[in-house]
Amino acid sequence: MSRRRSQPRRTPAPSSRSAASVAPSAPCPCGLSASYGACCGRFHRGEAAAPTAEALMRSRYAAFAVGDEAYLLRTWHPSTRPDRVDPSEGPRWTGLEILGTTAGSAFHTEGTVTFRAHYTAQGRAGTQEEHSRFVRHEGAWVYLDAVG
Question: What's the pTM?
Fold first, then answer.
């Protein structure tokens, strides 16, 4: 099993809460340098599947940031998936840092991603840290649960 640690990167998320209103040319909320349309937007639209656990983590963060409930449910393992998730009821996501990953490549069936997500809620800034576990289900990466 490989372990990769990257320098934390914090990038702003768009202020929009609706995937339909995010311009394809807007910066991607996940923090990579590509536009939303060329980065996570293509996963959200179903044009491609996330090739790694980290890519899925980033695309799920972006889905929370833009309010794409359908994508969140579609990429959640059936054994742990809630009946519904409403991103508009939560905080406004403002940045993502990937703190580390284990496995999760095209050659693995499991992987983890440790991240720190920045948000604002009721006018106050906060962070959420999680060590997330991802597995392949029917050939695609899906979120399973938080570890520990």
Answer: 0.86
